[in-house]
Amino acid sequence: MTELDGPRMEAAGGGQATALVVLLHGLGADGNDLIGLAPVWAPHLPHVAFSSPHAPFPCDMAPFGRQWFSLQVRTEEVILKGVREAAPILETFLAQELERHGLGWDRLALVGFSQGTMMSLHVAPRLKEQVAGVVGYSGALVGDDLLDGELASKPPVSLVHGEADEVVPFGAMPAAEAALAGAGIEVESLARPGLGHGIDEEGLRRGLAFLQRVLPQ
Questions:
Q1: CA atoms of 207 and 186, how far apart (whole Å)
Q2: Which domains can be identified in the chain, with CATH numbers?
Q3: pLDDT tens for each residue of 11-26
Q4: Is 54 an active-site residue?
Q5: 20 to 30 A from 133, CA-CA: which of 22, 28, 108, 207?
Q6: Pick the catalytic residue: 30, 33, 144, 165?
Q7: What residues does the Phospholipase/carboxylesterase/thioesterase domain cover (predicted)?
Q8: What is the spatial distance between Cα 28 and Cα 6, in angstroms, rounded to a whole number?
């Protein structure tokens, strides 16, 4: 099985981290993209370590970057197949990172952007051990009709999406929110007027507040 690696940032306060945030990038980027969130949030989460793995596959739509799954064919069936193939690779990485820090699953939060959000929303509720939470930016819930039958845990979720997103339609957020809430998962959402496919300052503040709430301080 492919092994993931990528940039990391240890707890800003020094010493042993009491929690871990894993940042999952979008299509065509790599771990160096979202690790940029770590120094923004770290002063407010001094006991939290950050890890930002490179997705397992080379991007097949650009001459550089990585992908969690291909988007050459964008049918629900093909995308779900891609997500399922990448899921065990991600799960193995998460387990290894927690072991590296000596932490349990309840000390882990996932933060995804775009494809990274799709991976986070698929993997987290299917883990037998419940993680602390998931922050999903500009993403979607793939295979929402399968969630009830495959649910293994109910981590809280915070969704943020730009209303002017030109890549992943804004409607993906209320659809994900409805499916997650219908499965009994605590979910909050934040719509950002005028924002395209990206993360703005208000979104960063919402993500930080959520992490401060769900992670041990």
A1: 15
A2: 8-214 (3.40.50.1820)
A3: 999 989 999 999 999 9
A4: no
A5: 28
A6: 165
A7: 13-213
A8: 15
